[in-house]
Specification:
With 290 residues, this protein is of the alpha+beta class. It has 2 domains: 102 residues, D-amino Acid Aminotransferase, Chain A, domain 1 (2-Layer Sandwich), CATH 3.30.470.30; 126 residues, Beta Barrel (OB fold (Dihydrolipoamide Acetyltransferase, E2P)). Helix content is 20%, strand content 27%. The protein contains 6 helices and 15 strands. The strands form 5 sheets. Strands 8, 9, 10, 11, 12 and 15 form a 6-stranded antiparallel sheet that branches. Strand 13 and strand 14 form a beta hairpin. The radius of gyration is 22 Å and the shape is elongated. It starts with 15 loop residues before the first helix and ends in a 17-residue tail after the last strand.
């Protein structure tokens, strides 16, 4: 069994549980396209996925034992008879995949068929519901197109866009400059601790000098009193871990698309300053809890 990323990198060492699950479906040969997800306490955790990419096999094994992964299949490229379906339209591939899943996927098992619908009303309902926090959007694909590896012209991702008021608990300077590059965002939990939840860097260039002046006047403790911006890791650089703490006060409204592990998964969009909003009003209740 071989597993590879979109970029073609092998992933078997990081997801041995998925290797075993695919091996057990009973098909001696097939090529599937899908997504690996890791449920934690009934929710999908993007953080757990990132943790799996670790050089130590012992660490990966520990993560596998704690939270086994699930493989959600959404396309069939080659079936169990060795027949290629890549030149067939999506409508035909999906029908063949559903038959393949009925024959080979165990109900409630770790390899599952992804949800799909041709109903606009159903898709809108999925998007509005957000999969109870698990979905950052839905994918719409053309039914008449063949499989197009690495191309996105036959599909579009429709994302959810929500807003939240966040405390600016700190900031980072831009690369090789003393002008603000990004604002570090925080939310209060039920115990009154301010936790780092993400960042926004979409500040207008014309405003950055003034924003820098305003924020530098507020530099000082405590910054974040709960979870703080991450320290060194194999992904971070020396500059990326440097940040300036601020005294509580500034509040901004940002747009975001998805929350995972109590943090914004992606960078957020700066919308406006909220001088009318007290910092203590910025709580996790806005995004569904810590």
């Amino acid at each position: 069994v071989q597993i590879q990323s979109k970029a073609g990198k092998p992933l078997e060492r990081y997801f041995p549980d998925v290797v075993g699950s695919v091996r057990e479906i009973g098909a001696k040969r097939c090529v599937l396209d899908g997504e690996i997800v890791i449920p934690v306490d009934g929710r999908l955790s993007f953080d757990e996925l990132l943790l799996r990419v670790h050089p130590a096999a012992s660490r990966v094994k520990k993560l596998v034992d704690a939270h086994p992964a699930r493989y959600e299949v959404f396309d069939l490229l080659v079936d169990d008879r060795g027949q290629s379906w890549m030149d067939e339209p999506l409508a035909a591939r999906r029908a063949r995949l559903e038959a393949f899943a009925t024959e080979h996927f165990e109900r409630g098992g770790p390899v599952v068929l992804s949800d799909a619908t041709r109903s606009l009303a159903a898709a809108k309902k999925w998007l509005a519901g957000g999969g109870k926090g698990d979905l950052d959007g839905v994918i719409a694909k053309r039914l008449d197109l063949e499989y197009r590896a690495g191309e996105r012209d036959g599909m579009v991702k429709v994302k959810r866009q929500r807003t939240a008021d966040c405390v600016v608990g700190g900031f980072r300077y831009g690369s090789k400059t003393r002008v603000v590059g990004s604002l570090l965002l925080g939310l209060y939990d039920g115990e009154g601790l301010l936790h780092h939840v993400g960042f926004t860097s979409s500040i207008a260039a014309a405003d950055r000098a003034e924003v820098t002046r305003r924020l530098e006047a507020l530099v000082g403790p405590p910054g974040f009193t709960g979870r703080a911006p991450g320290g060194p890791s194999r992904w971070s650089t020396e500059r990326s871990i440097e940040w300036e703490p601020l005294r509580p006060g500034p509040v901004v409204e940002v747009g975001y698309d998805h929350v995972s592990g109590g943090r914004f998964r992606h960078g957020t969009k700066f919308l406006r300053w909220r001088p009318d909003k007290a910092a203590r009003q910025c709580t996790f209740e806005q995004i569904g809890g810590a």
